[in-house]
Write a structure and sequence with these properties.
Layout lengths: L9 E5 L7 H10 L3 E3 L6 E6 L5 H14 L4 E4 H10 L3 H11 L2 H8 L6 H8 L13 H14 L13 H10 L3 H8 L8 H9 L5 H8 L4 H7 L7 H8 L2 H10 L4 H7 L3 H4 L7 H8 L4 H9 L5 H9 L3 H9 L5 H9 L4 H6 L5 H8 L5 H5 L2 H10 L5
Parallel strand pairs: 1-2, 1-3, 3-4
Helix pairs in contact: 8-10, 10-12, 18-20
Length: 389
């Protein structure tokens, strides 16, 4: 649709606007010289179904559709409001709000779901939190709810999450957008919530700018969280590797390049648990012939098939026990171990164990609990809709 084509014409609105408040909606219609009528007449070219329509309005809209759908357009308020939002000049809006200092109007636009994320974040910077917490007053609560509900994945399944601080924490955990993370970090009330900063420090979309900002907090809890970040800035990697409190975390979690592998090499055992090890790196660690390193490699769920077979050939009971519980163990070797009567408890827990073997182990009281706690078995049961055996 084109708003310019509605100039000097009328729309018939049933119910109310949804994204815009009534005053702002009327102002936008006036700007485009579009009249809002309450009854059908010759000037009406569009019928709009809004929110909160009464039964009478719904019936009237249906009746008009039957009579006039061939010459009058019928749309929902959402379509019209999205078109209005698309045509708003962001610079003009921001200047208008800045000059008017109208907090209610600013709040209304922040809550408008039709505006783009870019405009939303610019508006948010103008909001004054009054040095109070996210949910300490009604206005802050409404703004927080607007923020969380806009970016939270599957908000419809967690429809109350936008009204609690945990909503911010869960949002930070799921975000894959650096700019939105920066926006959250820039919200004044975050100063009251170290836990939010801790969660942000672990997010791999937290870039070097955010990481170094958080490092300046001088918080051991935040530093520990940063040390788990797989995309940790190299400057911080070097700093943390010199501190035993964080070195193992870095070696275990950092996304490895060959440069990063060499930097972390002194932490061989922790490094052996890193899921981003490639075959060449694993081979180098294997050749150390260090029992702790080999034990850690056997726990790594990204172990290369060739390295796995080399570990098996060592015939070390502890290492074999780990491998038979490791999901990368080939199903044929799990079958062979089962037939030989070995490592049944580990096989019962292994996600890669053939379902037929799990059924057999489930009949043995010694392994029944482990089988039922095996996510692969649970998923199979749910898929087949059989219930627990």
């Amino acid at each position: 649709m084109n708003l310019q084509e509605l100039e000097n014409k009328s729309i018939l609105l049933f119910g109310k606007p949804r994204a815009f408040n009534e005053e702002e909606f009327s102002a936008e219609m006036s700007f485009y010289k579009i009249n809002i009528d309450n009854e059908i007449n010759d000037n009406v070219v569009m019928v709009v179904d809004g929110k909160m329509m009464t039964p009478y309005e719904q019936n009237k809209s249906d009746e008009l559709y039957e009579l006039h759908s061939s010459k009058i357009e019928f749309i929902s308020i959402d379509i019209l409001e999205k078109e209005i939002a698309k045509n708003i000049d962001a610079s003009t809006l921001l200047m208008s709000l800045k000059l008017s200092r109208d907090k209610d109007r600013l709040k209304s636009f922040i809550q408008n779901t039709c505006l783009s994320d870019e405009v939303f974040l610019k508006l948010l910077k103008m909001y004054d939190w009054s040095d109070e917490d996210f949910f300490e007053n009604d206005d802050n609560r409404d703004i927080s709810a607007a923020f969380i509900s806009r970016f939270y994945k599957n908000i419809e399944r967690n429809h109350n999450v936008q009204y609690a601080t945990t909503g911010y924490i869960h949002l930070i955990k799921q975000l894959e957008n650096t700019e939105i993370l920066k926006a959250i970090l820039g919200l004044q009330p975050i100063k009251f919530h170290e836990n939010m900063k801790i969660q942000m420090a672990q997010n791999s979309f937290c870039d070097s700018v955010i990481q170094n900002y958080l490092k300046k907090e001088n918080s051991s809890k935040i530093d520990k969280a940063l040390s788990h970040n797989k995309k940790l800035d190299i400057k911080l990697v070097k700093e943390f590797l010199s501190d035993e409190s964080y070195a193992q975390n870095v070696a275990k979690n950092i996304a490895l390049s060959y440069e990063m592998f060499d930097l972390c090499y002194e932490q061989k055992t922790a490094l052996s648990l890193n899921k981003s090890l490639n075959k060449t790196m694993q081979e180098k660690l294997f050749k150390t012939n260090n029992k702790n390193v080999l034990y850690a490699l056997s726990l790594n769920e990204s172990i290369d098939r060739e390295i796995l077979h080399k570990l098996i050939k060592l015939e070390d009971e502890d290492i074999l026990s780990n491998l038979f519980e490791n999901k990368v163990m080939p199903s044929e070797l799990l079958q062979e171990a089962y037939d030989n009567g070995k490592y049944h408890i580990q096989i019962a827990r292994n996600k890669n164990t053939p379902i037929e073997i799990l059924y057999q182990l489930n009949l043995d009281s010694r392994y029944e609990r482990s089988v039922k706690e095996n996510p692969s078995f649970g998923q199979h049961i749910q898929t087949q809709n059989l219930g627990w055996l």
